[in-house]
Hints:
The structure is a homodimer. By secondary structure, chain A is α/β, with parallel strands linked by helices. Helices cover 48% and strands 13% of the residues of chain A.
Amino acid sequence: LYLAADNVQVMDMDVERALNHLDPGPLQDLTLRCEEAGADYIDVNPGPLTGRGKEKMTFLVEAIQAVSSLPLILDTANTEAMAAGLDACKKPPILNGFSMEPAKLKRVLPLARDYNCRVIGFLLMPDGRVPSNADERLSVAVDLFEAFSKAGLPPRNLIIDPVLVPVMWENGQHQAMEVLKTLRMLPDLLGFPATTMVGLSNLTWGRGRGERKALLEQTYLPMLAASGLDMVLMNMLHAGTVAVARTINALTGRRVFTLEEIP
Amino acid sequence: LYLAADNVQVMDMDVERALNHLDPGPLQDLTLRCEEAGADYIDVNPGPLTGRGKEKMTFLVEAIQAVSSLPLILDTANTEAMAAGLDACKKPPILNGFSMEPAKLKRVLPLARDYNCRVIGFLLMPDGRVPSNADERLSVAVDLFEAFSKAGLPPRNLIIDPVLVPVMWENGQHQAMEVLKTLRMLPDLLGFPATTMVGLSNLTWGRGRGERKALLEQTYLPMLAASGLDMVLMNMLHAGTVAVARTINALTGRRVFTLEEIP
Lengths: 263, 263
């Protein structure tokens, strides 16, 4: 299981302030804390970037690269800013991301092709709606892979996100099980072991006690891993969840961790 | 996920002393603590019962039944004592257990048939050795189910234990993954959704820090559940692991727990 830090995001007030003032210090501190916690990737999420998008994304990429050599995930819906970020990256980033929404297909896939980098494809309906079950997700996955291939991209560059929803939603528990089913069925459906990723914090979005949210994250993450998940976008400062992720890697032997490294 | 308490076992010094003095109090206190923690079954493990076996098993069953109406799991290799326990049970217990070892097939299966109760079948080789991978386990499962059916028992009365080994064993991490694979493949292999169970404490057998053992239990249990596990034999006084088990049940919706009940 590879761990991608979701911490560098504009919803974090410190990140938002640093971004508005183009102040690299707080972003660099946060990046280093994530790297020390064991992050394999840093997701860079500056939000919609309605103003000065290219400048802000370039600033972010350069600020983080000045202190860390971890690969980045460029997480924005602003494709001009994404292109600027791509130009600033020292090593190929992952693009986050595309879906069957026509605008996304048209703008993001050519970038992924031109820069030969991996891209996250969300199993969302063309109108942006979340599929209601595994069957709908698998149907979208077939369309998504076809669109991806038609754009001239190799299968290994596709990372599929089956889309977690908050467990507090009316059908949230059912959806959590349908995501596991989707992960189990994807390799046979697509005919190759597609890399998969989810945003874990989606599960516990909304109000609720921190202990309960932590327990949900720490229980569901091993279920995702046992169903075949390859990468998880998560809060690297949730120490309990990171410990579970490292234990998963010790048990599955997919990574270099050994049992002795478990905290 | 149904939870079976492994606490009433002779390896516990208080249980051993109470059993030797036929003193019901400590056993009853322990049973009530397990029931309060959410146990669905109480495993009754008096060890090999070399002396006064029938008397001790009858005493145990009666002592527990005096304070709890939970169904019992009679866990002994002494089939005479097991028969005495069966006679003392107010509701049908689960027998623990049999394997392809000839003596077990010959003695335990007739008891399960005569008392029409469920019985745990261990995926062990006929010589008692632990299979080295999922393929060996699945091969044993086919033989086990055939022997079980030949003895005149209905499929719903079979509970399969794929046999966890300590993760500290040389191949322990590999075995942990092979157990998950076995759980995933069993329903298709046998052609019906066989009930499955594991003894979770096997995973962390041996020396080691308590926190590390807890983390291993709490990480591996959701992986087992995501792979199809139905029942877990576990220490009901490990509060963290019980909380994870309840969260699994909230997420999977297989049990009546709701998210609000998560501690």
